[in-house]
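Reopening this ticket.

The earlier resolution said the output was attached, but the attachment link was broken on my side. Pasting everything inline this time so it's all in one place.
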Amino acid sequence: MTAPLLDVKHLTVVFDGSPAVTAVDDVSFQIAAGETLGLVGESGSGKSVTAFSVLRLLQPPGRVSGGQVLFEGRDLLTLSEREMRAVRGARISLIFQEPMTALNPVMRVGDQIAEALLVHGQASKSEARARAVDLLNAVRIPDAAQRVRDYPHQLSGGMRQRVMIAIALACQPPLIIADEPTTALDVTIQAQVLELLRDLKAQFNLALLLITHDFGVVAEMADRVAVMYKGKLVEQGPVRQILREPAHEYTRSLLAAVPGMKGAR
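Inline output:
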């Protein structure tokens, strides 16, 4: 069998204090190349902390206290910060929940896309500018050649999220982590962004770790689902199987909250 692209083994994250709090408790999951795993659970269940731990972006007092994060055969938790910087953006990209806080407000969006390429040495300045236009076209922003000159505040929320996706795609990483990518958007724009992610995933053969509290999004987007509750994975498996026969009471309650879905009783 082919080794998984990402293999998280017994990941444990604590937040130091008095007392210390375990935010992620012995979590294990795998993602194959080209696969979408939906990591689902309510706010505070540990989903985003898991994602930030994979990318080594946890801020103190949070720290990984145990486990392994194997990506392309290397344990990311053992790499130097310099080695991790070569992974972030180039091999694993993160789409943040709120693009207005993630984008630089005083940089043109085209320059922010180009910077992702320049930092990883994947293009010259002129090539990076041209690629920025191509990427805005890829994420279906109209008048891309003009829009590269815009600042984030000149774009709508949906457009800003598309810019974030363009930045994530810039270096064509094999894995993208999308942290609640549609939460800040209205329902119509949510649907467009999810459709875009699905199309881009097929086009670029991306693996996707999709973090969400919405089982409806998981049902639409994911191949497999892992259900997180109070820092633990309580259930995981193929989406259809979990939708049809959820084994955990918490999974059933999440399903019951989605119109048209009722957890098995």
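Reporter confirms the inline version is readable. The chain is about 40% helix and 25% strand. The longest strand covers residues 21-31.
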